Amino acid sequence: MPATIISLVLLTGAIASTIDAAYSNKDTRFFKIAAFNIQIFGPTKSSKVDVMEIITQIVQRYDIILIQEIRDKSGKTPEKLLKAINTNGYSYSMKLSDRLGRTYSKENYAFYYRNDTGITIVDSFHYDDGSEEKGVDTFEREPFVVKFSIPSLSVREIGIIGLHVDPDTVVRELTALADVFKAVENKFKIDTVIAMGDFNAGCRYLSEKQEKSLSLKSDKYFWPIEYGTDTTLAATDCSYDRFIIGGAKLIELAKSGDSSVFKFDSEYELTKEKSMSVSDHYPIELFLPTKTVVPLSTTATITTESSGVNPVNYKLSYSILYGAVLFIILLKMLN
Questions:
Q1: Given Cys at both, which of 49, 91, 127, 333 links 143, Cβ 3.0 to 4.6 Å?
Q2: Does the annotation mark 126 as catalytic?
Q3: Does 242 lie in the same domain as 139?
Q4: CA-wise closest residue to 108 among 184, 40, 49, 179
Q5: Where in the sequence is the domain holding 6, given as residue range(s)?
Q6: Is the domain of 249 the same as that of 331?
Q7: Mean per-residue pLDDT over the chain, rounded
Q8: Residue 133 and residue 281 in one domain
Q9: Which is the catalytic residue, given 107, 140, 142, 285?
Q10: What is the per-residue pLDDT across 77-118, written as a single tens digit (0 to 9) for each?
């Protein structure tokens, strides 16, 4: 019996390692995309070594990550982050937007992407929403759009729209975002498009009824992060940060993968104070199966009625198996 228990313990360890690997930055079975609003990310925050270490660790989880709320006239902060993440064998490049915003407090978007995955940037543009001087523009910060070529995915070319929505004009900006999708499709000649970022799409800024009335809530689009999902460190459960996915093939790929909110405070066992020194938002993450993935015959199919079909939640499936093995160990010990 002791030998059996030892074997089972080793098996559970292997399963646990598989779970960790599947969601780590080194796993090639999934292409990992994220959006992260690093609250007021400028010279002050980037000068704090302990905070930058946490941000670096977060960024290195992903193949592509959109960083929002970069506020630094000098432009040194995004470069400093790039230097920080290019350590310990990692190699990233950065695509930085112009400084955007109507007010004195302007922000950059920055896409960081891993070089060793073969990712290349095909094209990029800032969406023209009208003249700020004449007061006819729609977005507080114009969407920044990048077309990526991703050889590891069955959907090779994806346009990603980065957007940080003004909390005072959420409905207007998300309504206008439908036009941005069309502009991206026309310019890039693809329909595989992801919009992502801090949309302030929840709580007092956007009701669930208002969200359902948006044209982007049609069957043509998929919202992996549901209304009411907590994406912030605040006491309330507000689904501010979102993905919106367009294009039948990309939607199918996303539904065969997974999405989640990365709660770095619990993952890294941080105090509330330390967590808030990083940001008041969590990163949202999207896991797309790569062309190397072979569906596991032992993987249960998980269906969530509220968000439509979402087959194969890998992490949950492995967790169920892990729990079952632990239960067997317990029975063996009791006998």
A1: 127
A2: no
A3: yes
A4: 40
A5: 1-29+313-335
A6: no
A7: 87
A8: yes
A9: 107
A10: 999 999 999 999 999 999 999 999 998 889 999 999 999 999
